[in-house]
Amino acid sequence: MRRGVVAAGHRLTAQAAAEILAEGGNAFDAALAGIAMASVAEPVLSSLGGGGFLMARRANGETALYDFFVETPLRRRPASEAPIEAIVADFGPATQEFHIGLGTTATPGQVPGMFAIHKELGTLPVARLFAPAIAAAREGMRLSRFQAYLFGVIAPILTASTSARATFAPDGKLLGEGDVLKNVGLAETLERLAEEGESLFIDGEIGQAICAQAHAEGGHLTEADLTGYRVAKRDPLSWHYSGAELFLNPPPAASGPLIAYGLGVLEALEDGPPDTLHLYRALAATNDARRRHGEGLADRLREAALADEFAQLATHPPAYRGTTHISIIDGEGNAAAVSLSNGEGNGHMVGDHGFMLNNMLGEEDLSPDGIGQWREGVRLSSMMAPTIVCEADGTVTALGTGGSNRIRTAILQVALNLVEHGMDLEQAVCAPRMHVEKSGVLSYEPGLDMGAALDEAAESHAWPERNLFFGGVHAARRHPDGLLEGAGDPRRGGDSVIV
User: Fold this and answer.
1) Residues with active-site annotation
2) CATH number of the domain where residue 309 is located
3) In angstroms, rounded to a whole number, what is the distance separating the alpha carbons of residues 497 and 486?
4) What's the whole-model pTM score?
5) Distances from the Cα of 195 to the Cαs of 128, 130, 190, 191, 219, in angstroms?
């Protein structure tokens, strides 16, 4: 009997989760092993100082969303006491300004999230689940091409401080493809976490180090932020489309309602399977709905309650940052979809503990009145979209992606490929995609028959090949007969393992 399937953004992340499945752990045990390994193997996108979401579906059908995303601190220090530095990330074809420094760090939720998940869903000891990540951090791992590319993109962050350079540029030069990244401090932190539990990060030594660093170097975090943080367990947003039920990330996340809205528009437009014109109109309409925060949604959708979902988003500022994802389904049918983010990191390691806190407060969309003017004590909204799709025949798919504001469009299109076009999982993930920016620009990969969509778009951009711009959907699928499929998106260096 097969133990399960894993898809993730790095080979080591997938292998760590698969190792736990092979030993009899369930999908949620494997997810925790994957989260720990992602902090080692994918440090640009995931960290113990960040946050995320788990969409968990038990084999009996019970489904819940665990929200352990970041929150704004309870008190904002004056701007003069919380310096923020602008850096330029170089993506090659384009550049983007990010903001770093202790003043950009929101209250992290990843560690409390891991222990809340383990308490409710785990079966194996935490020490066993963290063991693969501990070994990789201590022994070192060779940087993949994709991770080396990300290192190059945010080089100013990874070399912003002496502590960061010691890990990511130990010989004075930023590590590149094939170089060994070793992080003994992170290995020791994970070992202590397994022994001492989450209190280590709340009022224990590391929690104290986080607060002391913030106090001394211009951050906002205090003991009250760490002790007051709570993981939220929410009912998913359920949406029906073409005979399938999708379990989506609910508010305050923005992703789930927007995906549901896009599917609702497609249903209203369809007079047959959706083509690129229908998809273009749905994506453009969803952008408009996002701007209006719910105005008129009740008239556009059959389920008017979705208008209330959008209205909630206005009170939770959105964070669009670097993200990675892990999807797992075990042999019993338990499914886990986990999305994680650290922003890009604030540029400063926490003591000698081997990790960097997030820079989520450096997001311009959080502070329309200027960087650093965010609302206090608010769980941030997110575009992260861990999703589970249940088809009429009993097939279950767990999926998610990185990709900032392209997350929802990537998830929507892969879901359509599965439930509407009948593709197998790898075809659905690798098929060409399109995206409509808020500005109205229509971007698309080669292989799509764009036809009338190009005539309707005010401006378009044809990409020469598949690109990480369009997300990286890592997905796991289980059919009623027990057949398993896994697909790691090549756009973002994904990998999958069946055990």
Assistant:
1) 323
2) 3.60.20
3) 7
4) 0.94
5) 11, 11, 9, 6, 28
